[in-house]
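dumping this here before i forget
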Amino acid sequence: MVIKEPQKDLVVPSFVKVVADIERNVLSYGCELHIDCAEELMRDGSVSGNLWGANVYFEEKKIDCVSLINIRPLDNNRSMRIELPDIKEEVERIIKLLIPFQ
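structure:
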C-alpha cells in the first residue's frame, strides 16, 4: 500500500516492513519483503536511489532502519542498517508523519 498522506485510522500490526521515498515523502507499507515495497513505489513514480527500508515495531514504538535494500556502497552505506544520519532521520520523519505511531 502506497501512503501519501497521514493515516489516522490505519490498523497497525505489531510489526510491519516499510520503504520510504525520501524525495517524495511517501512510503510503501506492509509488503512481505522490502523489495516488494520498493517495487510498489517505483511503479508509483519513485526512483530507486531515493528508497530506504525500515521495520516498524508499533508495540515497542521502535523504528529499525535495517533492510537489504539499504546496502549501497556507492552511497557510502555498506550495511543493511542506514548508517547515514541525515537519511536515517528523514526515513524516521516520514514514517512518523504518515502512519500512526502512538
